[in-house]
């Protein structure tokens, strides 16, 4: 442990708080520097593109030998393993650049060799001069490719060694996490721990006395002590009596000034006071020890880390006021009541105190101030505190609801039914369950003596909650800026494209930070960046981040151009033509399909993806289409046929598969029909092509109406015919040619049957026209005295005399005696 401390004086590789809190603050710079170094190293390697010299090869071989010994021995320190890995990464980048480079000489030799034609088949003869030239070019090409092959071999060796080093680093880190300390449940642990704490207190007091006895300190005490006392009074006084009234007053003023850019700027200014003002008091307090120049050896690392304590507390204080925002309901990001918001703020501040104390304890461990027993004794109360705070904060998050104020109650004192109902967020529910699970786990493992595991179970979840809160703050701030600039109300939803863009950007920023919080190493993040930069090989296709971005951008531009062209055709070009609505829709749909297909092809070609290797995939898909996708393909092809041949079009009245209605939309797979009951019926396109379809408006809207009418026997037939013809001629929806006609269709059981046959100008009006004709015919027949019969039946009763006699006998027997 001493060697590790000497090489890592701040203990970033061992302790979880420093590895998650402090390192998380600096990790953005680390990631950017690592990615910049990766890109710079790749660019420099691309510029040089020189094969490795013999001396470089010997150096690489020596490095490989040392890495193999370190992996096999498993006793090398973590810092030495990290150093070996960094050296291997440099060798890997150099050789990877050689493998990927564009070698002009190789391309020229390949082109010359290709100009000679294909090599002759085995046993076939070739002209002597051509064979000699082919052999010469093949030797030259092999010599030119030799450095690339050598670099490829070296690259494969390096990749294997790096993977093995990563495995050993993770294993060593896991061993540190599961290291067992004395259990705090044992009495002996408390006895040994309290004794170690007493010894540390005595050692610290001796160090302070020795520091005060130093001439450079004792001579300046008369001057430095008043300054230190003044700074202490100023710092505590500023934090307790000055900063809070100022921040609270600005917050209330910003709450009254609602809306607009000015209101948003005022809110940001008031929110920034929760960082700037506490920072002033913290700077005054942190400056006390440097002014006194007292640095005891027992807490030397703690003294140098005092600014980090202040940073942790200020960030916790600021996040609590920003997320929960007591007394500022408009800017509150969680839908909580005033009491719950204040409780959430206090929990955030308490978690900041816990992190500060945990950070202090781990820095004391770096200074080797305590032994295992003391660490176990001191860590147990802190873990209990963290578990309790996590449990309470989880309960607060689950109460994410809007609580009605007393003034919002009804007149009868009962709650108003229009008050906002409680909201339930699935993510907050999951987060609260995770926090409570981590609290239970931390308490259990710390009682068993696994102090580092308890820290891993509790501290990363606290830091993750803070990071998620910061991410949600940035998302909320971006929404507020957008609403202020566009003069939108806070209740209006932002465009879905903006919301998705914000989520993607925040995910890219915070995903590495959360991964580092939960134990990932910076080299893991760099490896992920390298994988995204270099891409993943799928056969002859390499998918990398730049190719995916180019693919998405070019395809997006193609979609925009297609939509713009459709809009131009729809609003400017097609209305000037004589095409009907169905033909216009077919043209627009065809333009959409062609545009999207071209966008895909151009995007794939621009991204440099080789589609020739997809022939095997296409063959496999053809088999799948033949079996499982034949219905979908049949509907797709039928949709194309419908758009080209246009046997039906939008607005047609059709009957198919027992359904009748108007065609509203023809898509690739199906056609939507609206029935006369205003119901939407989805018909597969294959039914429209393979089945029987009755289209009442295909060639024209003219259609025939047949109106059956029955009159009583003995009626004046010529009068009936005249009434029917006059009714048809007098209706505006009936055409004059072909002329209406009346047919005597038969002698019915109760009536003389006629049919009025006429043609409508628009068959869509058939129901209303039929109703109007019936009204007219009924009235005119009534005026003419012509009866409209109804079915009549004769009822014959047998043995009526016996039935009458039985009734009389029954009645006589019931008379009183």
* Average of the residue pLDDT scores: 80
Class by alpha and beta content: alpha+beta
Q: How much helix is in the residues?
A: 55-70%
Per DSSP E runs of 2 or more residues, the count of β-strands stands at 10
Biggest sheet features: 5 strands, antiparallel
- The best one-word shape is extended
Which strand order spans the largest sheet, edge to edge or round the barrel? 6-5-4-3-7
Spans with pLDDT under 50 lasting ≥5 residues? 1-51, 401-424
Rg estimate, integer Å: 44 Å
Summarize this structure as a short list of keywords or feature phrases.
817 residues, alpha+beta, five-stranded antiparallel sheet, three-stranded antiparallel sheet, 27 helices, extended, disordered N terminus
Walk me through what this model shows.
The protein has 817 residues and is α+β, with helices and mostly antiparallel strands. 67% of the residues lie in helices and 7% in strands. The strands form three sheets. It has a five-stranded antiparallel beta sheet. Helix 5 packs antiparallel against helix 6 and helix 17 runs antiparallel to helix 18. The N and C termini lie far apart (128 Å). The N terminus is likely disordered.
């Amino acid at each position: 442990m001493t060697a590790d401390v000497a090489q890592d004086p701040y203990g970033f590789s061992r302790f979880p708080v420093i590895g998650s809190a402090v390192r998380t603050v600096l990790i953005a710079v680390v990631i950017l520097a690592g990615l910049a170094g990766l890109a710079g190293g790749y660019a420099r390697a691309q510029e040089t593109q020189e094969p490795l010299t013999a001396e470089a090869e010997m150096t690489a071989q020596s490095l490989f030998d040392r890495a193999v010994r370190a992996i096999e021995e498993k006793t090398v320190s973590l810092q030495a393993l990290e150093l070996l890995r960094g050296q291997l990464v440099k060798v890997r980048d150099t050789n990877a650049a050689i493998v990927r480079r564009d070698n002009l000489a190789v391309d020229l030799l390949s082109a010359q060799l290709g100009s000679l034609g294909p090599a002759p088949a085995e046993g076939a003869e070739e002209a002597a001069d051509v064979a000699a030239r082919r052999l010469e070019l093949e030797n030259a090409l092999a010599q030119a490719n030799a450095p690339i092959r050598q670099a490829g071999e070296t690259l494969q060796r390096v990749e294997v060694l790096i993977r093995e080093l990563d495995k050993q680093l993770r294993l060593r880190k896991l061993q540190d996490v599961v290291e067992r300390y004395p259990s705090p449940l044992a009495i002996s642990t408390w006895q040994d721990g309290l004794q170690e704490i007493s010894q540390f207190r005595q050692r610290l007091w001796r160090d302070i006395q020795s520091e005060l006895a130093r001439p450079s300190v004792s001579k300046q005490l008369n001057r430095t002590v008043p300054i230190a006392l003044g700074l202490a009074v100023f710092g505590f006084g500023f934090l307790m009596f000055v900063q809070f009234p100022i921040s609270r007053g600005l917050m209330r003023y910003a709450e009254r000034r609602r809306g607009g850019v000015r209101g948003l700027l005022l809110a940001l200014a008031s929110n920034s006071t929760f960082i700037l003002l506490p920072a002033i008091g913290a700077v005054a307090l942190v400056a006390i020890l440097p002014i006194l120049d007292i640095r005891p050896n027992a807490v030397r690392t703690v003294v140098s880390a005092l600014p980090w304590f202040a940073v942790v507390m200020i960030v916790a204080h600021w996040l609590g006021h920003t997320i929960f925002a007591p007394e500022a309901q408009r800017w509150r990001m969680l839908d909580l009541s005033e009491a719950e918001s204040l409780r959430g703020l206090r929990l955030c501040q308490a978690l900041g105190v816990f992190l500060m104390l945990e950070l202090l304890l781990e820095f004391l461990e770096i200074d080797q101030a305590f032994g295992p027993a003391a660490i176990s004794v001191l860590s147990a109360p802190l873990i209990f505190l963290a578990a309790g705070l996590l449990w309470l904060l989880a309960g607060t998050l689950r109460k994410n609801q809007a609580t009605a104020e007393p003034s919002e109650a009804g007149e009868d004192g009962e709650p108003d039914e229009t008050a906002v109902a409680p909201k339930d967020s699935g993510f907050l529910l999951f987060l609260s369950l995770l926090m409570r699970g981590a609290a239970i786990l931390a308490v259990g493992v710390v009682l068993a003596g696994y102090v580092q595991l308890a820290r891993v179970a509790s501290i990363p979840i606290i830091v993750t909650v803070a990071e998620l809160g910061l991410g949600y703050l940035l998302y909320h701030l971006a929404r507020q800026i957008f609403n202020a600039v566009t003069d939108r109300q806070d209740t209006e939803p932002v465009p879905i494209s903006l919301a998705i863009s914000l989520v993607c950007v925040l995910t890219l920023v915070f995903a590495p930070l959360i991964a580092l919080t939960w134990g990932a190493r910076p080299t893991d993040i760099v490896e992920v960046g390298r994988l995204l930069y270099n891409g993943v090989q799928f056969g002859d296709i390499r998918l990398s981040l730049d190719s995916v971005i180019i693919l998405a951008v070019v395809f997006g531009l193609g979609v925009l151009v297609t939509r713009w062209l459709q809009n131009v055709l729809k609003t400017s070009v097609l209305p000037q033509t004589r095409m009907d609505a169905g033909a216009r829709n077919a043209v627009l749909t065809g333009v959409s399909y062609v545009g999207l297909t071209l966008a895909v092809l151009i995007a794939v070609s621009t991204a440099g993806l080789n589609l020739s290797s997809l022939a095997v995939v296409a063959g496999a898909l053809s088999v799948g289409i033949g079996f499982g996708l034949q219905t979908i393909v049949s509907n797709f092809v039928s949709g194309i046929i419908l758009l080209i041949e246009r046997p039906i079009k939008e607005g047609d009245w059709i009957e198919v598969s027992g359904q009748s209605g108007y065609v509203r939309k023809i898509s690739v797979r199906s056609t939507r029909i609206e029935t006369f009951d205003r119901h939407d019926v989805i018909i597969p396109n294959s039914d429209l092509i393979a089945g029987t379809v009755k289209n009442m408006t295909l060639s024209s809207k003219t259609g025939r109406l047949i109106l059956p009418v029955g009159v009583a026997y003995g009626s004046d037939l010529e009068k009936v015919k005249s009434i029917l013809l006059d009714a048809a001629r007098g209706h505006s929806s009936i055409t004059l040619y072909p002329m209406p006609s009346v047919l005597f269709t038969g002698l019915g059981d109760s009536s003389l049957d006629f049919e009025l046959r006429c043609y409508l100008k628009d068959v869509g009006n058939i129901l209303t026209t039929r109703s109007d004709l019936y009204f007219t015919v009924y009235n005119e027949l009534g005026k003419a005295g012509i009866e409209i019969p109804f079915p009549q039946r004769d009822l014959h009763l047998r043995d009526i005399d016996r039935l009458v006699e039985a009734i009389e006998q029954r009645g006589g027997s019931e008379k009183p005696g």
